[in-house]
Structure formats: C-alpha cells, structure tokens
Amino acid sequence: MKFSLALRLFTSLLAFAFSAKLAHGFFGANAGISHLTQSTYHAQVMDTEQTTVVMYYAPWCGYCQKMKPDFATASRKLKGIVKFAAVNCDEEKQVCAEAGVQGFPVVKGYYTNAKSKKRITIEYQGDRTAQSLVSFGQDRIPNFVKNIRSTPTAAGPSITLDKFYSLENSTLPKIVVVKPASRAQKPTSSLLKALAIDYHYRLLIGEATGASDDDAVYTDFGGKAPAPKAMPDVYAVIPGQAEAVKYTGEIKQKPLREFFDRFALKKKIRPSRKKGKAAKKVEEQKAKLGNVRDEL
C-alpha cells in the first residue's frame, strides 16, 4: 500500500515536471515568457490592464524559430514593464482561431486605453528584431500617471498639486515623482507608467517637474527647489499624515515596488466592464450632461 502510494506520488510529480518542460520548451524557462492556454488566455491577455505582447507560433515553423531569440530578448529587456506571452497554435487551436491567426508567427499587442479603459488589440507589423519589439511594447503602455503643474497650461492635460491630493476624496495613498529640470521635456518613463498600471486602484501616481516655473510644487516637500540633478525625487503622501515620506533608494524597479508596497492599499479586483441596463442608462445620461470624469 505504501509502495503504491509512493509510486502514484512519484508519477504525478514526473507528469507535472514533464508538462512544465513542454510549456517552456520552445522559449526556455528563463525567457520570462508566459505560455498561454485556453484556461489562462483571457485572464492574462484581456482581463488585465497590463500591456501584453503575444506571439502566436507553431513549433515546426522556421520563421518562428528565427524570431524566437529576439522575442525572448525583448521579454527580458521589458521584464516587469510589459508582459510577453506565447501561444502554441498546434496545441491551442481554438485560442489561435479566436485571435484570428492564419499564419505564423503572428505577434499582437494588447493594451488598455487610458481614457476609455477599453482593451485595444493591434497586430505587430515591424521588423522581427528585439529592439523593434521593445519599442512596440513601450509605445503601447497607457499613461495613468497624473501630470502635476503648479499652474495648469495648455501644453497638455495637467492638474495642480491640490487637485491631485483631492482625487478619490483624499482617501487613496499618493506617490509624487518630481523630475529634475534637466528632464522637464522628457516623457513619462516606461517604468513609471508600468508601475501606475500595476498599482492602479491601490495608489495614485503623479509626476511634477522641478523646472523654474514649477518651484511651487516643492513647497510641500521642503520649501525651495533643490539644485538640478539627474534623478527624480519620489515622495509618498499618506491620507491623514502631515508629512510626506521621501524615498531614499535607487530609481530601479525592485526597490521602488518595495517602497510603493509599504503604502498601497490591498490589491483590489478591477471593476467589471459588464454593466446592468440601469447603470448603463445612468452613465449615458451623465455623458450627455458632460459630467463624466474618470479621475483614475
């Protein structure tokens, strides 16, 4: 009896290890690429706010084999910023059919529109190189980061610091990133945009510029604007707490996540896009009145 139980346990472990090997066989376990199946596809590709790049392939396809190392390299370069995944169309025929795949390889990007919150699909048409794939992924990251200015301008959508504090009735913890003047004209980084997605509904992230016309932004963080420098300052603003907490670590993904985790709300389930008829009617009426504003 004991031998039989041990044999069954060993067989189960062997089967699990074999299936894991098959799942990572095409790209390798260290590529950081999620292998999707019928049961995991929707949750990881459609029911998420993360930007996801998916390669639909067949193991026997020569073009897929040729593209494989570049896709894996792009995945490693954007680890934690853009999710890379793959579907084996020999095994997941229904998934590939529903995605409209008719040849191999096909690469598609999936991202969330920052305003409408709708999931957008776009087929990749660029060169099959790692750098082109990296650019494709970065360009599809929505920007949920609030643009903070001491005086809003017509240069783009922006809000004052007081307005930023008041969003979500001042109940949501805030992160304020103050860029140095030398980076005033640079767009929001891919890392910060990715963090704003991952912490959406848990933290609200805003970005201000330490340019001369925005020195007023610093009044809440020590008075005078600091001397120009290369890296931004990061502060956590906690509801009910008088002073902001300054981040003292490196501007890198892992330590920033650890800092954000100290103040973020517990992860919430993203609100369903499915709405009842009554709720939909109310929203339509609000839209007609021009009162719909999506603060987050």
From TrEMBL:
Record region (Disordered): 271-296
Cleavable signal peptide: 1-25
A GO BP entry: response to endoplasmic reticulum stress
InterPro entries: Thioredoxin-like_sf (IPR036249), Thioredoxin_CS (IPR017937), Thioredoxin_domain (IPR013766)
Gene3D superfamilies: Glutaredoxin (3.40.30.10)
GO MF assignments: protein-disulfide reductase activity
Domain Thioredoxin: 9-146
Cellular component terms per the entry's GO annotation: endoplasmic reticulum lumen
UniProt key word Signal: yes
Protein name: Thioredoxin-like protein
Phylogenetic classification of the source organism: Eukaryota, Fungi, Fungi incertae sedis, Blastocladiomycota, Blastocladiomycetes
